[in-house]
Amino acid sequence: MHAPLGATAASDNVSRPLALEAIGLVKRFDGTTAVDGVDLTVPQGAIYGILGPNGAGKTTTLRMLLGIIDPDEGVRRMFGHERPHDIARLVGYLPEERGLYPSMKAYEAIGFLGALRGMPLAEAKRRGRDLLEEHGLGHAADRQIRQLSKGMAQTVQLLGTLVHRPRLVVLDEPFSGLDALNQGKLERMIRTLADEGTTVIFSTHVIAHAERLCEGVAIIAGGKVPYAGSVDAARDRIPAQVRLETAAVDGPWRAALPADVRHKGNFWLFSLPESGIEPLLRALIEGNAGILSLSIERAGLHDAFVHIAGEAAARALDEETSAEQAR
Amino acid sequence: MTDQMANTRMSRLPLPRAAFVIARRDFTAILFSKAFLFFLLGPVFFGLISIGAASVGRKAAENTTPAVLAIAMDQADAAAIERASDRLDTLIDLPDMVRVDPLAGEASAILADKDRNFGAVLTGTLEAPRLIGTEERIDRWKGEVALAAAAARGSGEDYPEVALEPTASSGATQRSARAGTATGSVTLMFLLTMLLAGMVMSNLVEEKANKIIEILAAAIPMDAVFVGKLFAMLGVSFVGIAVWGGLGGLAVGIGGMGGGMNGIGMAGLPAPAVGWPLFALLFLIYFAMAYLLIGSIFLTIGAMAPTVRDVQTLSMPATILQLGVFFLATYATSDIGSPVEIAAVAFPFSSPYAMISRAAQEAALWPHLMALGWQVLWVVVFVRFGARLFRRRVMKSGPQGAGRSGLIARFMGRGGKAPA
After folding, report:
1. Angle CA(A173)–CA(A29)–CA(B406) in degrees, nearest 5?
2. B37 plus B143 within the same structural domain
3. With CB atoms counted within 10 Å of each terminal CB, which end of chain B scores lower, N or C?
4. How far away is chain A from the Cα of B246, in angstroms, using its nearest Cα?
5. Total domains, chain B
6. Are residues A122 and A167 in the same domain?
7. Helix (H, G, I), strand (E, B) or coil at B282
8. Alpha carbon distance B391, B222 (integer Å)
9. Are residues A111 and A249 in the same domain?
10. Mean per-residue pLDDT for B93-103?
């Protein structure tokens, strides 16, 4: 098991103030430890992913960060405040289980969510109409939620999360239940928010979303966070893989190959040596290996996840992703 | 100071404002729903039931403290009729008779004595008795009086003609009628509270079913959700009461049913001891108290129920609790000042019912001030307790539908499934 790398994230972003910080968060439910010592740091303006399979503790962690439930142990800070409620109007939250009052009109629903975050109702409703127009749903503004498609209703709720212009947006499994088109739209919205300086934290069990969007991730499995830091640092935890094709099958040059080398078809596969590729290349050329091709592949976040969280967690994650794609 | 103001602008809404946001949403959502029309129709039936219950209550009050016949004859006739009555009493059920001084005053003054439960006054002589009282009462007693007078004279079957002199009311009729008003208002308050508290119980299921509860929990204090919902439903019920009261007033106005001149008004109900305007105000206040007390408990119970089906299951014991409170208050109605009535006044849930019953029968106002203070105290206790329990339990259950655990386990605090 690897040590948490919350400190890495902090050092990576030493010049950026933190939007969110968790130190040793623990939550137990009736004797079962749901979250066991979560540490993470999220710099302001970052897109940050909490990555893990269902039941790993993502939602509980988010709920603790938002103050919906209190941790049994540990400290959380949002923009330096230890009580999340002290800055509730700066936060927007989209829970995993989406829901709106079915009889409300779309712009009213956004207005209501804005009023909950301290906006005057009339202003929130007005802005609700504007947001719906901006996102191509102006025609649905006066339709009741029950009359909207699931995708439209989810967009309405997301707009309700943003109506009060929060500085921190927390999205719990935001891509869940969306088709590919709407997932693309959501990814663009998240990027736009970050470009405007809003910090976005989202939980997901789909590695691809985190890999495309996030500068930092916390990998969570079994209630623990074995890794929290930048995506690059996570990927760098696994040495790059070298794929070598040689004309010769044997020779003294083979002694230069690293210990983890495997022979697969015409290719030699091994981790990039710590000394780099150049000494190895020299040895191959001098040993007349006859290099036909050579490529160096950097590890993906999925590989990093397997490496960090273990095969079982990765398998669970893959199964959930496949099941959702099948739906 | 500036930092403080900035912090206030950043922090979540304070409880009253957050409760107002919730109450406004709920209030308008209910008021502009089609179901509200049906809600308005329901109490029309309640009204009919109330009138029936009031009449039953009046009968019950009469039986509890039977009316007495005041004998205001000269001493010899009065003694003779008393003896005859004693003789006949073993054979026939005659009204209780009490001798009064025939010079004490007019019959109407005797009847108006609220400390004595006189149903009618017998004056005149044994040969020509005169029976004074309400029409209903003297009509019922004229036979017994003729029999007793004949027996007193020793004239066998030669029954004297009893002259009847009807009056508008008597102390006994006023008391029993006020008991009827008390029972009617207790019944009406009970029916309204039962209907509205039942709606409160299922109120939070909507949020749980629509998955909105977590958004609310993240944005505002959960106490505000609790308080907002309670007051929204109270507001809705006041709208209903205003509509029904307006319709009732219109009916009385059009039908000319409001007497008022003889202490009988409001569709035939006698004026309560504190007078109609104050009684109406007290009714609204006590209704609000009864609603907030039982509503806070029901809302807490309802909040623990994960589905509408569970709410229905829970509604049975809740209804039985309400019925128990109603029966206690109704029982106490006929016996103001008794230990049972004082217990009903002191027990928070039955206190509003017992006190509206008092307002119908007793003119003193200071007990209402004391009772309202007592009830407000308990409202605060129950609302805070309910809100606290709600806040502690409701978000422990993890994502909705992620797994249901038994209600008992929920109440025992062991039902929460760890969220993902």
Report:
1. 95
2. no
3. N
4. 29
5. 2
6. yes
7. helix
8. 6
9. no
10. 82
Domain that holds residue B180: 2-61+174-395
Asked whether A42 and A19 are in contact (CB, 8 A), the reply is: yes
Q: Same domain, yes or no, for A212 and A259?
A: no
Decide if pLDDT at B287 tops 60: yes
**CB atoms B12 and A85 under 8 Å:** yes
Contacts of B381 (CB under 8 A, 6+ apart): none
Q: Which residues from chain A sit within 8 angstroms of residue B217, using beta carbons?
A: 68
- Which run of H or E residues covers position A25? strand A18-29
Last residue of a domain, one of B140, B169, B198: B169
Instruction: Give which of B212, B229, B393, B397 to mutate to test A binding, by max A Cβ within 10 Å.
Output: B212
User: What order of strands is seen across the sheet that includes strand B96-99?
Assistant: B96-99, B68-71, B118-124, B129-134, B163-167
Instruction: Tell me what ipTM this predicted complex has.
Output: 0.80
Q: Which tokens belong to B230?
A: 């309670």
Q: What is the mean pLDDT of each run of 10 residues along chain A (327 residues)?
A: 39 71 91 90 95 89 90 93 90 89 94 95 96 94 93 92 95 88 90 95 91 93 90 86 89 89 88 88 90 88 83 76 70
**Quick one: tokens of B74?**
């000269």
Provide the 3-class DSSP secondary structure of residue B35.
helix
* Of the partner residues B11, B401, B420, the one whose CB lies closest to the CB of residue A54: B420
The candidate with the shortest Cα–Cα distance to A227, out of A51, A79, A59, is A51
Domain ends where: A210, A235, A260? A235
In this structure, what DSSP letter does residue A90 have? Answer: G
Q: What is the CA radius of gyration of chain B?
A: 28
Range of the domain at A280: 241-297
Tally of helices (H runs) and strands (E runs) in chain B: 15, 7
Residue A219 lies inside a defined structural domain of this protein? yes
pLDDT in tens, B178-228: 777 888 888 888 888 887 777 777 777 777 676 788 888 889 988 888 889
Widest distance between CA atoms in chain B? 102
B350 and B390 in a single domain? The answer is yes
Question: What are the tokens at A126?
Answer: 């007005």
DSSP code string of A186-235 = HHHHHHHHHHTT-EEEEEES-HHHHHHH-SEEEEEETTEEEEEEEHHHHH
